[in-house]
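MODEL INPUT / OUTPUT PAIR
PAIR INDEX: 1
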Amino acid sequence: MIRTNGLIRSATLLAAGGLVIGGLAGCSSSSSTASSASSPASSSAGSTPSAQVDVADVTLHIGDQAGTGAEALLTAAGLIDKLPFKVAWSDFTSGPPMLLAMGSGSVDVGGVGNAPPVFAAAGGSQIAIVGALQANPLGSALLVPKGSPITSVAQLRGKKIAVAQGSSADYHLLTVLNKAGLSVHDVTLVYLQPAEGLAALTSGHVDAWDIWSPFLEEAQGLDGARALVTGNGYGSPYSFTVASRAALANPAKAAAIRDYLSLIAQAHAWASTHLSVWAAVWAKATGLPLSVMTKAAADDASLAVPITSAVSTSEQQVSDAFTTAGLIPVKVDFANYIDTAFNSTAAAGS
């Protein structure tokens, strides 16, 4: 198993680097699910399973980030050694840079929030949503720094707000502003990745910061930040596993992705009933205090769900909101960026 990490997750996170070598080999327990679609314009409604595919020699390049903690989650659940293929893990500060790497061919699959697939699709990336998670609304928040006089979203008019461009926080912020009768033109958006966003908030360079777990719990628990709103009533209730079209077109990699989705679904189900154990492992992986990660584990708890019409409609609403706000230049038909062939894997978490 190989891990690459050249990005800082948070101001207080440990930098992980170098190579971790190991062999995860086996035979896929699932059928090939390779999509025949070669372009985003082709609908990926599902693929016809074929004979069992041996994935022992497959190396799946998996994107990871602090907000998803896929490697740590699988480790905590005791499932990391059940991956029947080789893995090359790569860390990213958020979903958008992960999907940029996916577009360049260096990542096959990875977990992101609701907005990164929209921006990737608008940019013409050859990607598809292959798995969904019902996200916990407490895993998102718009924060103000300790001692801030701001007590309502309406008071942010004319203020500076940090957010990672194209992230789930970007959409969360958009819905928060809209419900308060504000638009992105009524504030100054400062596009920063999580580490810089935290530094900007605590130093007073911005008036607010929209962010997700575990960064929001870090800011609250260690720096005294306060939430104006959480995800309750805002944003989108879903996060996603996204795969490159190139990986889906490869029968062996598609089979490996199916196995990965099944194990991730199991791991999320396990974490929801073993929060303290999961928090301890996640704390070790991030370098953040256990007190912070205990709250993050509870706030971020998610369960795998099939990609239904409701999920597809929700993601279309995310896309349309960015188009209406002028934050992406085109309208995206998101039905062309969803592959439901892996829906049965969600049952592994039930």
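PAIR INDEX: 2
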Amino acid sequence: MSAAVAFADLGDFRATSFPNVSRLEADQFYFEPEVSSEDCFEGIVGKSPALRKVLEHVAIVAPTDSTVLLHGETGTGKELVARAIHNLSSRRDRPYVRMNCAAIPSGLLESELFGHERGAFTGALMQRKGRFELADRGTLFLDEIGDISLELQPKLLRAVQEQEFERLGSASTIKVNVRMIAATHRDLRTMIQEERFREDLFYRFNVFPIEIPPLRERREDIPLLVNFFVSKASRRMKKQINSIPRQAMEMLTNYQWKGNIRELANLIERSVILTRGEELELPVGELRGSSETVFPAMSTSNFRQAECTVIIGALKAACGRIAGTGGAAERLGLKRTTLQNKIRRLGITKRQYLI
């Protein structure tokens, strides 16, 4: 992936404070206290093929001013993708304005979008700018556009297409220069057939569609996400968590995750709250009690890859040194010979950790 799509730098890889690593091969899954800059982009964590495809599309469309339509289930991170598009665009230093169309009563939505003049309606005690005006020369992100009423859709179409509108209670036309990003979890094509969404508005938003995959289609990202959320929550709660039981990681990886990343983040935060020692205490009963069928356990090769990643990270942090103070063996709590055996067994080459 090009430098433009390189993940945001969240700090150098560090592999420190690992307890008795003999358990690494038994029932523990260790994680780094920092997410690698290669694995996190604008807060979007992962490196699965499904996610990389999304990020490639982001890199392509971000430099343009084209309208983008993000589609994906609730909790998949559509707003993070929208922010990434804005941050990679020429408008990055201009306003980024967000509005959740489903969170605002339909009677107030027009005023929120276009603003109003004093006295335009009961309770309008002063002039107020709408989101379009606030986003002038920047980006406006409209989340859940499928919830906009049919009555308001023609006015929205004009604002998006012509970049002009009138505040409520005013006859003066206001012109703006706004880059539009919209998102929805609804099937807009079906809504068009049911006459609940205008076809012309759909095509105006659907200039560059991006499909955000659900978490169950990018399971290889779950260990990275768990690491990210555990690190974030433990720092906030001032806890030192160094490991997670292998069985717990298997359950997290194979769970259905109807709520996607949001559900995972909430579960990990709850787990950090419950944890009393250095090993994450996952409320496994919640996962076992789910009505969803748990998929077959994560393959041994995935855990082999996880172990390989930890060792390579420690070698990178130690600039390739295995023994001695600050060496990879010390960082991992391993004997030099044990680490050398692991490096041979896993087939790790110098090219992988010497840059």
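PAIR 2 NOTE: The mean pLDDT is 83.
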